Amino acid sequence: MHQFTSVRDISDVHALVQEALQLKAQPFAFQQLGKNKTLGLVFMNPSLRTRLSTQIAAQNLGMNVLVINADKDSWALEFTDGAVMDGVTVEHVRDAAPVLGSYCDIVGVRCFPGLQSRDADYSEHIMQQFIRHTGKPYLSLESATLHPLQSLADCITIQEHLPAHRPKVVLTWAPHIKPIPHPVANSFAEWMCRSEVDFVITHPEGYELDPRFTGHASIEYNQQKALEGADFVYVKNWSSYRDYGKVLCTDAEWMLTERHLDPTNRAKVMHCLPLRRNVELSDEILDGPHSLVQMQAANRVFAAQAVLKRMLT
Ligand code: CP
Known about the structure:
This protein has helices at about 15-25, 50-60, 95-105, 120, 125-135, 150-160, 185-195, 210-215, 225, 285, 295-310; strands at about 5, 40-45, 65-70, 75-80, 90, 105-110, 140, 170-175, 200, 220, 230-235, 270. The protein is an alpha/beta fold. The protein folds into 2 domains: about 5-145 and about 300-310, Rossmann fold; about 160-290, Aspartate/ornithine carbamoyltransferase (Rossmann fold). Helix 8 links the parallel strand 9 (about 200) and strand 10 (about 220). It starts with a strand and ends with a helix. The model has no long low-confidence stretch (mean pLDDT about 95). The protein binds phosphoric acid mono(formamide)ester.
């Protein structure tokens, strides 16, 4: 595998999930695979889980890991071709990325969207420049539109809690105080559309995601109706795609509480973290028996390890 930026880079989601579960059972079985190989991780934005889980995954495979926080402990990067760099940016990605490529065997980058221009964000121009100029296999640590390592960890977690029947999975919008980007929601939708599940997305009107990612998912504006019979409920806020980056609704009724779970099939509740307690999701769910959020976070290690293993082989 030369790049991991989307579910489209994977031919068989189920096989990759099974591979991750095998690694979870035997994390150190492939310690020789990454010997004398270096993974470079570039963070343009904050991270707890992605940063640490990807490092652990690489170490489990015997790799060396380099981590830089662009703009903090390296130089502020410029991404515009032909820019006259007389402002705050100090180094062009055309110069920095080949350096990373010369030091590393695989390069991972986190680059959030600016939420100012939909066209710019959805063109993935930052990720594309890293891919082009490093010349090495590329691992997305979350891009402007997608977060595939999170979605793979979510699929692993669902697989570990599968009911006997074909599961119903609901992605529900949740309130938030700030405009939040779309990658987790887009990506979860994309991976669910490739999984053996019945998939429903529920949100207030105006929060429709890009149909390129939601595919054949059912859209239901009535949250209570959407939750009927759900086995898994994935909670996430996102800002509007249509009115790009805008917050259109702050209705606290959309925050999941125990009461919201009544019509479900004793649903398990998921969230990628970080989250704002009692704004996005209630304490009673997070601290109760329905929550899978800590398992999702723990599975981030094996999602990253399965992907790195394929890149190394
Ligand atoms: N879920 C997730 O990607 O967490 P971090 O932003 O902390 O990496």
